[in-house]
């Protein structure tokens, strides 16, 4: 039979609370060089958002100029930002010459 472990309340209170890594928002920025279909496809592929969520986010970025597409620890957020920047131009718009832009912002 295993012996029970007892922790004195004074010892338990003295232990520091575990620290969690700060979170960052991945914020997609609007432009006129990408279609809704492009945004929905990109968000579905890179973030695994459902079509409904991706469409809602496409509407928000179009109407407000920005949308938070994910909130992650910094390294993951930075990786997702790089994926967005590398996604490439929208083949549906001839003048489109690159990916959408996004920024990282601390989640407070």
Can you describe this structure?
Strands 2-1-3 form a three-stranded antiparallel β-sheet. It contains four helices and three strands. The protein has one domain: Ribosomal Protein L30, Chain: A (2-Layer Sandwich), CATH 3.30.1390. The protein has 108 residues and is α+β, with helices and mostly antiparallel strands.
Task: Label this structure with key terms.
alpha+beta; elongated; 41% helix; Ribosomal Protein L30, Chain: A; 108 residues; 19% strand; 3-stranded antiparallel β-sheet
SSE inventory with pairings:
Layout (H helix, E strand, L loop, with lengths): L8 H6 L8 E7 L6 H12 L3 H14 L1 E8 H12 L16 E5 L2
**Which CATH class?**
Alpha Beta
CATH topology: Ribosomal Protein L30, Chain: A
Question: Which word captures the global form?
Answer: elongated
- State the helical fraction: 40-55%
Strand order of the largest sheet: 2-1-3
CATH architecture: 2-Layer Sandwich
How many runs of DSSP E, i.e. beta strands?
3
User: What's the main sheet like?
Assistant: 3 strands, antiparallel
The helix/strand order is HEHHEHE
Could you give the distance between the termini? Answer: 47 Å
The number of distinct structural domains comes to: 1
List segments where confidence is low: pLDDT < 50 over at least 5 consecutive residues: none
CATH 4th-level superfamily: Ribosomal protein L7/L12, C-terminal domain/Adaptor protein ClpS
Number of helices: 4
Structural class: alpha+beta
Radius of gyration: 21 Å
């Amino acid at each position: 039979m295993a012996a029970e472990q007892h922790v004195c309340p004074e010892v338990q209170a003295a232990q520091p609370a575990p620290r969690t890594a700060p979170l960052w928002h991945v914020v997609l920025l609007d432009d006129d060089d990408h279609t809704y279909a492009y945004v929905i496809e990109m968000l579905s592929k890179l973030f695994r958002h459902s079509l409904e969520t991706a469409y809602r986010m496409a509407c928000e970025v179009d109407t407000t100029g920005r949308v938070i597409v994910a909130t992650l620890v910094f390294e993951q957020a930075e990786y997702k930002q790089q994926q967005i920047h590398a996604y490439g131009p929208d083949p549906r718009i001839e003048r489109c010459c690159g990916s959408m832009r996004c920024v990282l912002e601390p989640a407070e």
